[in-house]
C-alpha cells in the first residue's frame, strides 16, 4: 500500500496567538489538498486557537513538545492528555533544537514516544546528524543509534503509525538543503533500520519525512524520492510558500 505523504509545518517559537489565527486564515485556501496529510505543529499557547481556526479544513494540529509524566508537579510542562483533549493529533519529539538547547536525551525521548502513543497521539520523531558527524562519516551510525534508543519497547503496530523526520542539523535554518541523494540515502537507511528492528511490513508502513531548508523550489524533487514521505518545514511554513510545498 502506498504511503500517504505528510507535510508538516514546525512553527518553532514563532506566532503569538493572534498572529497564529491570522496565518491560519491566510493559508486556508493555499494548503487545500486531499491527497496529503497537512499538519501545523505550533507553540503550546497557540494550540487552542489554532485547533479552532482550522476546524472544517484539511489541516491537523500538532504540538512541538510534551512531557512523559501523566500529571502532577512538573511546573511549566504539558502532558500528552492535555494535548489530546485540546484536539492535537501529532507531537514532535526530539527535535534537534530540544536535543541541543534543552539537553533532551534519548532515554527521555523514548519515554515521550511511548507516552504519546499511549495517549493516542502520533509522534513525529526527529533524528539527524551534525555537520561534524557527516564529515567524519558516521551519519548513519549516529541516526541508527538515535532511532534504536528512541524506540525501545515501542511495538511494530505503533511504529506503523509513527512519523520519523530526518533533519540534518546543518541543513536546519541555514538555506543549505541536503541534496536529494543525501536525503534519500538516509531516509532509506532509516527504513532499513526499522526493517531490521521489526519487519518489512513495519518498514514499508512507517512514514519518513525530510526536514531542513525545505522550500517551494526544492519540495517536489525531495518528495519524489522513494523513501521520502513528505517534509517537516520550518521557516517556509510561516508564509504563503507553505501552500506551494503542500501542493508540490
Ligand atoms: P527550516 O525549514 O527552517 O530549515 O527548519 C527545519 C526544521 O527544523 C523543521 O523542524
How would you characterize the overall build of this protein?
By secondary structure, this protein is of the alpha/beta class. The chain has 12 helices and 8 strands. An 8-stranded parallel β-barrel has the order 1-2-3-4-5-6-7-8, surrounded by 4 helices. The protein binds 1,3-dihydroxyacetonephosphate. 1,3-dihydroxyacetonephosphate binds next to strand 8.
**Helical stretch count?**
12
Distance between the termini: 21 Å
Q: Low-confidence stretches at least 5 residues in length (pLDDT < 50)?
A: none
Number of beta strands: 8
User: Structural class given helices, strands, pairing?
Assistant: alpha/beta
CA-based gyration radius: 17 Å
What is the topology, as strand order, of the major beta sheet? 1-2-3-4-5-6-7-8
Instruction: Please estimate the helix content.
Output: 40-55%
The molecules bound to the chains, other than polymers, are:
1,3-dihydroxyacetonephosphate
Averaged pLDDT, please?
97
| Major sheet size, sense and barrel closure | 8 strands, parallel, barrel
Give the DSSP E fraction (strand runs of 2 or more residues). 15-25%
User: What series of H and E elements makes up the topology?
Assistant: EHEHEHEHHEHHHEHHEHEH
Shape: globular
Amino acid at each position: 500500500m502506498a504511503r500517504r505523504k505528510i507535510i508538516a509545518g514546525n512553527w518553532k517559537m514563532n506566532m503569538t496567538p493572534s498572529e497564529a489565527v491570522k496565518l491560519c486564515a491566510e493559508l486556508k485556501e493555499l494548503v487545500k489538498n486531499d491527497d496529503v496529510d497537512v499538519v501545523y505543529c505550533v507553540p503550546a499557547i497557540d494550540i487552542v486557537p489554532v485547533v479552532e481556526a482550522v476546524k472544517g479544513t484539511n489541516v491537523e494540529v500538532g504540538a512541538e513538545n510534551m512531557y512523559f509524566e501523566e500529571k502532577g508537579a512538573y511546573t511549566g510542562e504539558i502532558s500528552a492528555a492535555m494535548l489530546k483533549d485540546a484536539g492535537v493529533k501529532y507531537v514532535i519529539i526530539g527535535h534537534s533544537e530540544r536535543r541541543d538547547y534543552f539537553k533532551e536525551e534519548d532515554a527521555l525521548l523514548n519515554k515521550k514516544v511511548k507516552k504519546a502513543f499511549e495517549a493516542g497521539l502520533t509522534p513525529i520523531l526527529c533524528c539527524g546528524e551534525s555537520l561534524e558527524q557527516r564529515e567524519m562519516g558516521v551519519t548513519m551510525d549516529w541516526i541508527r543509534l538515535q532511532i534504536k534508543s528512541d524506540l525501545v519497547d515501542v511495538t511494530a503496530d505503533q511504529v506503523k503509525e509513527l512519523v520519523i523526520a530526518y533533519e540534518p542539523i546543518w541543513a536546519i535554518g541555514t538555506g543549505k538543503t541536503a541534496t536529494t541523494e543525501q536525503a534519500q540515502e538516509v531516509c532509506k537507511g532509516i527504513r532499513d533500520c526499522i526493517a531490521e528492528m521489526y519487519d518489512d511490513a513495519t518498514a514499508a508502513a512507517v512514514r519518513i519525512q525530510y526536514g531542513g531548508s525545505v522550500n517551494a523550489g526544492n519540495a517536489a524533487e525531495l518528495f519524489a524520492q522513494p523513501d521520502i514521505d513528505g517534509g517537516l518545514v520550518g521557516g517556509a511554513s510561516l508564509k504563503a510558500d507553505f501552500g506551494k510545498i503542500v501542493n508540490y
